[in-house]
Write a structure and sequence with these properties.
The chain is an alpha/beta fold and 513 residues long. Among the domains are: 62 residues, SH3 type barrels, CATH 2.30.30; 46 residues, no CATH class; 90 residues, Phosphatidylinositol 3-kinase Catalytic Subunit, Chain A, domain 1 (Ubiquitin-like (UB roll), Roll). Helix content is 21%, strand content 18%. The strands form five sheets. The chain has an eleven-stranded mixed sheet with strand order 8-10-11-12-13-14-15-16-17-18-19, with no helix packed on it. β16, α5 and β17 form a beta-alpha-beta unit. α7 packs across α10. It is elongated, with a radius of gyration of 32 Å.
Length: 513
């Protein structure tokens, strides 16, 4: 730690202030000497603990403390920037030399005769804003701002934020991600500073849910809130706050199971993002299987991507949501018995009667009809076994809450479709099929006698054993001597050979990636 005799003056209120140093951000925890060295030092706690070297101690003396054992460092004041005020940052961002060759993207390009008074969006991400500057000047200079991005700023508290926003009477959207803001003693006293705010992003701010609720009185009109990548685990019920919220993103927070039910009473919540939260379970116990829950009454869009959902019972619970229209659950562990992702998708469609978009794709009418009919057949054997026994029927409908409604829609599955035919009948229905391999000229064709009722997924299982190629990689088509030159797709694993009108002497072409 060398001595720099030209160190600049340090603000009197430096402790607790935010600083930037070589592109990294930190909070000042100590200002003073660090013997045996000469001169002044700043003890800082880094946002990124990997940037630090110690816990705030040196030679056995504890100068400050850090949450991380190696999250602190000592830096010279000359190495640290305490940032600039809002108007200085606006000038740096937008007041540029029009003869400059600097390249701007279309969305941030200022006009050649820029008037700050006409700005409706101000984007100051990473511009090291530390506060408002001279009182009243923001209202005079940028009065039309509706969207403000102050991500990665050097503001230290919500007081710093409100000193800016209370001068922006038109402000509707505010981006405050990657900040570390100290909290206010009376948040409700700052409602005027955020009176028109509709959209707020507080991603990666190291927040807990109680801290969010502590600040929530400041945002009486808030409709969209993103708090992704924070430290939110246990969610408590919002009492008297966030009642206008329509869109909430809790993605990338380590949520405790079922904790999310605490927000199920929000009356206006239409969209909820719970992706990457470790979620494996959801239960709406106020409603019986197949009934409608009173929880999340307005929820239309739900994102559950990249979680640990593995039980189909969870899908049956989601079917209880009265307004659910769009569901995305990619990257989970929902699998069908045959291990085929297409079958799993069909099960999702069949179980979720109200959902019109699945995994960001619209469910077409034919796709829904096919999935529901296949679902009826898939579990028709089980249904036939329990039919007539009230207790067993009850157990079956608990596991398959939509089954009875699908019977009402399409009729009960026919016993002839589901019962295994007698051996003599089976023999009469055998088809001689030749498997050929157009992409592998050295492989000899294989002839097999297969029952016409054999479903495609079992055909692929047979080919998997013969070829040692994963069934999921196999793609099948067929040709018939009756229609030479035409190749027909075999694209539904739950359909039978008979469904595709495959007859004796037809060829099945087998390809794989």
């Amino acid at each position: 730690m060398g001595v720099d005799l030209t160190e600049p003056e340090v603000p009197l209120d430096a402790v607790g202030r935010r600083v930037s140093c070589d592109g990294e951000r930190a909070t000042v925890r100590y200002v003073g000497p660090v013997p045996p060295t000469a001169g002044l030092w700043l003890g800082v706690e880094w946002d990124n603990p990997e940037r630090g070297k110690h816990d705030g101690s040196h030679d056995g003396v504890q100068y400050f403390t850090c949450r991380h054992p190696k999250g602190g460092s000592f830096v010279r004041p000359g190495k640290a920037s305490f940032g600039v005020d809002y108007l200085t940052a606006v000038g740096q961002q937008y007041d540029y030399d029009i003869t400059s060759e600097k390249s701007y993207s279309d969305w941030e390009r200022p006009s050649k005769k820029l008037s700050f008074e006409m700005l409706t969006s101000v984007l100051l991400c990473g511009r090291d804003v530390n506060g408002a500057g001279p009182d009243g000047e923001i209202r005079k200079t940028t009065p039309q701002v509706r969207w403000l991005d102050l991500s990665k700023s050097l503001m230290s508290s919500w007081d710093d934020v409100s000193s800016i926003t209370r001068q922006l009477d038109q402000l509707e959207g505010l981006q405050l991600s990657s900040n570390r803001l100290q909290f206010l003693s009376e948040p409700s006293a700052h409602c005027e500073a955020f009176s028109r705010l509709k959209t707020l992003a507080l991603n990666s701010c190291e927040l807990t849910w109680p801290q969010v609720l502590e600040c929530a009185p400041m945002w009486p009109q808030l409709e969209v809130l993103s708090v992704e990548g924070n430290h939110i685990t246990e969610i408590q019920r919002p009492e008297g706050v966030l009642q206008c919220l329509k869109n909430l993103s809790l993605s990338e927070n380590p949520l405790k199971q079922l904790s999310v039910l605490a927000i199920s009473t929000l009356p206006s919540l239409e969209e909820l993002n719970l992706s990457r939260t470790g979620l494996s379970d959801l239960r709406f116990d106020d409603a019986a299987p197949g009934a409608v829950s009173a929880m999340f009454p307005a929820l239309k869009n739900l994102y559950l991507d990249n979680n640990a959902v593995s039980e189909w019972r969870v899908v049956d619970e989601l079917a209880k949501l009265p307004s659910l229209e769009k569901l995305s659950c990619l990257g989970n562990r929902l699998e069908s018995e045959d291990g085929n992702p297409k079958t799993a998708t069909q099960l999702l469609i069949a179980k979720l009667g109200r959902v019109s978009f699945l995994n960001r794709c619209k469910i077409l009418p034919d796709e829904r009809r096919g999935a529901e009919l296949d679902y009826l057949k898939m579990f028709g054997g089980e249904w036939l076994k329990v039919r007539g026994d009230a207790q067993l029927e009850g157990q079956f409908t608990c596991e398959h809450p939509r089954y009875l409604s699908l019977i009402q829609k399409y009729g009960a599955p026919e016993e002839g479709e589901l019962k295994k035919p007698e051996s003599f009948a089976l023999k009469n229905q055998l088809l001689k099929v030749k498997f050929v391999f157009p992409d592998d000229a050295e492989r000899e064709p294989i002839e097999k006698k297969l029952p016409a009722s054999m479903v495609v997924q079992k055909v692929k299982g047979l080919l998997h054993r013969l070829l040692k190629v994963p069934a999921l990689d196999l793609r099948l088509t067929y040709t018939s001597p009756k229609m030479e030159g035409t190749e027909f797709d075999i694209d539904n694993d739950l359909k039978s050979l008979q469904f595709y009108s495959i007859e004796d002497g037809d060829q099945v072409l087998v390809r794989w990636s």
